[in-house]
């Protein structure tokens, strides 16, 4: 129960407190809802998916960022 509560608090905080001025300098990487930020035992396949998604979003971000 505490884990679910903690995850809800973190997600709500992150979503609510990123202002537009700051958001332009942040790379947002949407992840599969099955992979939680507090899950430290994900599979190698899941790790690779996250790395590839991060590369894609970073490349796109850097192309337009100044």
- Kindly state the mean pLDDT as a whole number? 81
Fraction of residues in β-strands: under 5%
Q: Tell me the helix content.
A: 55-70%
Low-confidence stretches: none
Order of helices and strands: HHH
Notes on the structure:
The protein is flat. It has helices at residues 2-16, 20-23, 44-64. By secondary structure, it is an all-alpha fold. The model has no long low-confidence stretch (mean pLDDT 81). It starts with a helix and ends with a helix.
Features:
single chain; 66 residues; mainly alpha
Question: Could you write a compact summary of the structure shown?
Answer:
The protein has 66 residues and is an all-alpha fold. It has three helices and no strands.
SSE diagram, text form:
Layout: H1 2-16, H2 20-23, H3 44-64
